[in-house]
Amino acid sequence: MLAEQVLKLPRNVKRLIVFLMDLLLVPFALWVSFSLRLGEVYMPVDNILYLILAAPVVAIPIFIRLGLYRAIIRYIGYMAMWSVVKAVSFYTLVWGVLVLMTQTVGVPRSVLLINWLMAILLIGGTRAIARWWLTGSFKSSRQTRQKKRVAIYGAGDAGVQIANALSGSFKFKPVAFIDDNPGLQGNYIGGLRVHSFKQLSSLIEDLAVTEVILALPSASRSTRNRIISMLEPFAVHVITLPALDDFASGDIKPNDLREVGIRDLLGRIPVDPEEDLLTKNIRDKVVMVTGAGGSIGSELCRQILKIGPTVLILFERSEHDLYKIESELIATAKRLYPEIPDTSDLIIPILASVTIQSRVDMVCRAFGVQTIYHAAAYKHVPMVEKNPLEAIQNNIIGTYIAAIAAIDNNVETFVLISTDKAVRPTSTMGATKRFAEMVLQGLSLLENNKTRFSMVRFGNVLDSSGSVIPLFRSQIKNGGPITVTDPKVIRYFMTIQEASQLVIQAGAMGNSGEVFVLDMGEPVNILDMAKKLIHLS
After folding, report:
1. CA atoms of 160 and 75, how far apart (whole Å)
2. The whole model's pTM is what?
3. pLDDT in tens, 252-308
4. Distance between CA atoms of 121 and 85, rounded to whole angstroms?
5. Closest-CA residue to 410 (of 374, 446, 371)
6. To 10 degrees, what angle do helices 11-38 and 125-134 make?
7. Which ranges in 250-291 belong to alpha helices (H)?
8. What's the CA gap between 111 and 115, in Å, rounded?
9. Domain boundary among 134, 164, 183
10. How far is CA 28 from CA 69, 130, 208, in A?
11. Distance in angstroms (rounded) separating the CA atoms of residues 386 and 369
12. Which of the residues are catalytic?
């Protein structure tokens, strides 16, 4: 289909098409204006012909400056059309001044008004027709009914923007707003009626609403959690916009929509980091992360790179994971540090295991490592139970080897990523991590030791490889059932960004041998968390 082929064209090619179209429409609108004013097909004389041909030279820079070529045609809405009106008005005014300055004879003043109307009609109209065509608005009502019917929670600017954007979507059809403001309820915004939350049941029944979009990017986490909890009993799929700070620009597009994540159900405000603690052991230092390709290790690397180390060493035993995180960090480094032409001296990938003492020692000595974040560990509880010897070798002996290398090479700071399962451990994984903590506490007491050892415990990290959440999501996607080992089990949860920032800050605090624990709020019942994921999926 031609419309689909056009949509697949590169963004710059589509902009060029619109640009060329305006290049033709601007002088055409002027010619039509003269013809309408004079009541005949107008044949311009030389001086007026030059003015008509000069019109695009005046108009196009104004259109570019006012953003007419930044809008995505298939998502164009009222604000974009208002931009067309402003741009055409400014262009008409400038062109009129040009006529006065050149003292051109034969240009009726009414032509300016007619041209203003014609330019708005042609330039705005062609965009509206293109939007109608590209979004498939001409398709049959049967195809329209296949779209998912959406109620938008929040009738503010974000809600209006997403409604305009979704009106051009192949997937969604906005049918109503929901808002807690009594002053808005009962009114129409963009053709959609604003309802109260109490009317959601009737919206589901009468308007066949299957999706609810939370268009509340500036709302607090507690407000979002309250609304999500209110939506749980209803048979609707909940989608949300990220927080306001997460938008790359002020424009909201369908691509900004995301599933309600587990972090939306966390039940507490994320812990903000302290800048001084973040930078103390990283900025202008040689930093090594073991297990750099894992979920925690890779996030640590992302956070560290932003802070500005002299060298970031990625120590990882998995070739695939090492290649993946190195490629990502190189791309990030090019954006963060464009003044560095070659990032090979900034990001150093080391394919090795922490259980090989000579390799760890050589890396610490060769690069003059100053800070180590030890994230290399086996942490899948069921897998570790079946393979206890490997867990002992990696989690305990690997930690000992890395710590000895740190002491021998005068590494300033060594931070161990531990777990809340190390507290009175009931599993092999928890026991090995507790043993690793005790190893570091013992080494910190050595007289010749100049390395400061810290240990950081935290609970379940959302979406980490060892977390139960990805398993729940996979089971829901496959139609269930969800497996919960014990319905009474409770766990503390934190975001992976929080976990990484806590690890970094812990290395800058306290005395050697100390264990740090994040106050993670109230624990969450695993069964309740699973039920929430089911209801909102």
Report:
1. 12
2. 0.58
3. 555 555 666 555 555 555 666 777 888 888 999 999 999 999 888 999 999 999 998
4. 9
5. 371
6. 140
7. 275-280
8. 6
9. 134
10. 20, 19, 46
11. 35
12. 421
